[in-house]
Amino acid sequence: MSLRIGITCNLSKNENRLSSAYVRAVVRTGALPFLLPVGGNQCQWQEMLNGIDGLLLSGGGDLDARFYGEDALPGQGYVQPERDAMELFLARCALDKGIPLLGICRGAQIMAVAAGGTLHQDLAGVQKIQHQQRAPSTYPIHRIKMRRSSLLRRILQAEEIRVNSMHHQAVKQPGRFVVSAVAPDGVTEGIELPGHPFALGVQWHPECLADDCRHGRALFKALQVAAQIKKKKARL
Predict the structure, then answer these.
(1) Cα–Cα dist 189/138, whole Å
(2) Would you name the residues annotated as active-site residues?
(3) Mean pLDDT, residues 95-112 taken together
(4) How far apart are the two ends of the chain, measured CA to CA in Å?
(5) N or C of the chain: less Cβ packing under 10 Å?
(6) What pLDDT is recorded for position 14?
(7) What is the mean pLDDT of residues 152-172?
(8) Looking at the predicted structure, is the pLDDT value of residue 134 above 70?
């Protein structure tokens, strides 16, 4: 049976939506994408996890600051508490049970908060380069630098790459995670959890780069490989 990678959806106007770029990126690895709609309860969310081999937390809107113990500041955007609760549950379970996990943009922020971290509610006043790029989503707008010993650097086989950037929030305190990549202005661009089989979050959108960029594809392949290893171990 093919590997199953669950991808969380975004809730918009009572519709579950997901960019087809995520689906293409997962399909390219040979895995089967399973879309996880927002809704249900914890028992049903657990059943979702039981049916997949790896989890991909997709991008989207802002995470409500109440989930990391703060009040919403003026710069926080529109929030979806139902999605927040579901994704935090999925992330915590994946971290606790060793389920391979990749978080993209908002997904990386969810992972940090699930592990006790906090966010910059708005990068205004923090950023010194464009993090909400004025360019097509497929265009890498700024550089990031990766920590020498990081999993991210091993996957991407580079010390520095250029990435796209479409966010106004970012990880502030990573909780149990360690920071594995930063932008030139110090904004966190990558986090990972030492000791976990595969728990990696990136602030950019590799799904938009996967058609034309090797390092865009590499992250999805790494998730697929980690899911495959876990599935083989489960059979032993």
Answers:
(1) 17
(2) 105, 205, 207
(3) 98
(4) 16
(5) C
(6) 87
(7) 97
(8) yes
What pLDDT score does 19 carry? 95
Over 70: is that where the pLDDT of 1 sits? no
Q: What is the DSSP track for the chain? A: ---EEEEEPEEETTEEE--HHHHHHHHHTTPEEEEE-S-S-HHHHHHHHHT-SEEEE---SBPPGGGGT-PPPTT---B-HHHHHHHHHHHHHHHHHT--EEEETHHHHHHHHHTT-EEES--TTT-SS-SB-SS-TTS--EEEEE-TT-HHHHHHT-SEEEE--B-S-EEEE-TTSEEEEE-TTS-EEEEE-TTSSSEEEESS-HHHHTTT-HHHHHHHHHHHHHHHHHHHHHH-
Report the alpha-carbon distance of residue 99 to residue 119 in Å, rounded.
24
142-146 and 118-120 strand pairing: unpaired
The model's pTM is: 0.96
For the chain, domain boundaries: 4-235
Place of tokens 């991210």: 152
CATH number of 4-235: 3.40.50.880
Strand partners for 56: 7, 102
What pLDDT sits at residue 111?
A: 98
pLDDT at 97 over 70: yes
Pairwise CA distance, residues 153 & 158, whole Å: 6
Mean pLDDT, to the nearest integer, of 3-13? 94
Q: How far apart are CA 164 and CA 8, in angstroms?
A: 21
